[in-house]
Amino acid sequence: QGQRRRLVVGNWKMNGTREDNTRLLQGILGGWTALESVDVAICPAFVHIPQVAESLKGSQLHWGGQSTNPHEAGAYTGEVSAAMLADLGCRYVIIGHNERRRLRGETDDYVAEQFLAVQRAGLVPILCVGETIEQRESGQALATIGAQLDVVRNAAGLEAFEHAVVAYEPIWAVGTGKTATPDEAEQVHAYIREQFGELGRQLTILYGGSVKSHNAAELFQLQDIDGALLGGASLEANEFLAICRHAE
Ligand code: PEP
């Protein structure tokens, strides 16, 4: 894996009260042991970012948003801009998560606009790509992922990926308890890396989809897997900590 640092990102999705968050953050910070080669971030709901920021400031952990509106500012009721996330000290913004593609109709073009907006704000986009079970079973997994990456790369340029993270999340593995086998995951990660030529060697590529403490070590051993994007496992302090340590 050369000089690539590891990265573990917790996506809390639409979960938690401030009280729940306090407990979870105390559990994480209470059990934290310094990690040398791993960056760790938590992405709570927008309304909880100030609470998480306050709790994590001065720690080794970073925080981020789960999405963003691509516009700088203006008449976009209910939306949050990347500049607002930057103002709250975020480092990362997840974009193109399959739940938003599916539930909010976010297209590849829209995701490309978000990617640009996140970088304009000085933050690091975590671009999620992945195939459905039908696409996998019909042999279209790699072509699907290649097309999702192409749209963003054509809009932003190859060099933009020097300051970006890609997360491979097979849709059939997110929140389902099913994980891609190490072979399946490694094949896709190697393919993603190839799409970026020379630059691919330094690109951080995360795996996401039912990663837990019991399967993380096996995934992190693979040559092209640089860390994980976690849903369910990020809501339990001990699970989250164990996965972060496996990444070290
Ligand atoms: C996710 O939502 O990004 C995710 C990977 O979820 P889970 O870990 O729960 O499958």
TrEMBL record:
GO molecular function: triose-phosphate isomerase activity
Name this polypeptide is given: Triosephosphate isomerase
Function of the molecule: Involved in the gluconeogenesis. Catalyzes stereospecifically the conversion of dihydroxyacetone phosphate (DHAP) to D-glyceraldehyde-3-phosphate (G3P).
Summary of subunit composition and partner proteins: Homodimer.
Family in the record: Belongs to the triosephosphate isomerase family.
Database matches in Pfam families: TIM (PF00121)
InterPro entries, A to Z: Aldolase_TIM, TIM_sf, TrioseP_Isoase_bac/euk, Triosephosphate_isomerase, Triosephosphate_isomerase_AS
Pathway named in the protein's UniProt entry: Carbohydrate degradation; glycolysis; D-glyceraldehyde 3-phosphate from glycerone phosphate: step 1/1; Carbohydrate biosynthesis; gluconeogenesis; Carbohydrate metabolism; erythritol degradation
Primary location class: cytoplasm
EC number annotated for this UniProt entry: 5.3.1.1
Positions annotated to bind substrate: 11-13, 175, 210, 231-232
Residue numbers annotated as active site: 97 (electrophile), 169 (proton acceptor)
Keyword annotations of the record: Cytoplasm, Gluconeogenesis, Glycolysis, Isomerase
Subcellular localization(s) per the UniProt record: Cytoplasm
Taxonomic path: Bacteria, Pseudomonadati, Pseudomonadota, Gammaproteobacteria, Cellvibrionales
Reactions this protein catalyses: D-glyceraldehyde 3-phosphate = dihydroxyacetone phosphate
